[in-house]
Amino acid sequence: MYFLYKEKYGVVRSATTALTQIINSGTLTADIVDAAYTPVASPSFAMSSKNFSFSCQSSTGTLGTASQQLYVQNPDAADSGWTLTIAATSGPTAYWDSTVDYDYNDATSSGCTDGADADSLAGQMTIDASSGTLAVGSCNSCTTNNITKGSSAAFAQTSVDSITLLNAAAGSDDIGDWKLTGVAITQTIPGEQPAASDYSINLTITVTAV
User: Fold this and answer.
1) Are the C-beta atoms of 42 and 34 separated by less than 8 Å?
2) What is the C-alpha separation between 94 and 104, in angstroms, rounded?
3) Beta partners for 188?
4) Is 188 in contact with 58 (CB distance < 8 Å)?
5) Do 175 and 148 touch, CB atoms closer than 8 A?
6) Are strands 162-168 and 147-149 parallel, antiparallel or unpaired?
7) Given 8, 26, 111, 207, which is the most exposed site by the fewest CB atoms within 10 A?
8) Is residue 7 scored above 90 in pLDDT?
């Protein structure tokens, strides 16, 4: 005995849908990040402590560590290059703030005495980006080609209000991220500066497309 099976197929209709996708260029940004590239909420670092002195002296520090890296992202936003600079957050009239203040940008060559700037404070800060270490961030295909570190420079009111940390030429990668650590800072402290544990000044890093 044979059994006859019949299958009945319905009518299948199909249509093609075209999907579109737009990926916009991101924003050129600078930040302070930890080793996982997470922004640090309140970045800070301490200069070397000094004892009271009747003579002018210098304190040193390092800007950019493994846990507080200077970080630049260029997600195809600055094809002609960019610069990373640092300046006092409050501008050229800022100073190391405590009960008795001292300056960060006195125009004299040494900073040990008050010069012809707008305040009556002595003191000068020098930043040497050339001593730092520049490396690629999380980008797997990026290089540091055509990105140069800034040279040693001292803040001087009206003439040097910001200092270049990095300069990316037009030939640098249009898409990439980079980190900078180990930037040397030297601060001249005028003689007879009173002892205090709360001297502070705020600095801001800024990245600008060329």
Assistant:
1) no
2) 8
3) 58, 124
4) yes
5) no
6) antiparallel
7) 8
8) no
Q: Are 198 and 158 in contact (CB under 8 A)?
A: no
C-beta atoms surrounding 168 within 10 Å: 26
Comparing C-alpha atoms, which of 155, 54, 176, 161 is closest to residue 111?
155
Question: Is-contact 193 100, C-beta < 8 A?
Answer: yes
Cα separation of 63 and 61, whole Å?
Answer: 7
Contact 86, 167 (CB under 8 A): no
- pLDDT (tens digit per residue) in 69-84: 999 999 988 889 999 9
Q: How many CA atoms lie within 13 A of 161 on its CB side?
A: 10
Phi then psi for residue 161, to 5 deg, are -95, -15
Provide the greatest CA pair distance for the chain.
119
* Cα distances (angstroms) measured from residue 161 to each of 34, 71, 91: 28, 21, 8
Question: Residue 151 in contact with residue 177, Cβ under 8 Å?
Answer: no
CA–CA dist 42, 44 (Å, integer):
6
CA dist 129 and 165 (Å) reads 5
State pLDDT tens for residues 108-133.
Answer: 878 899 987 888 999 999 999 999 99
Contact 85, 93 (CB under 8 A): no
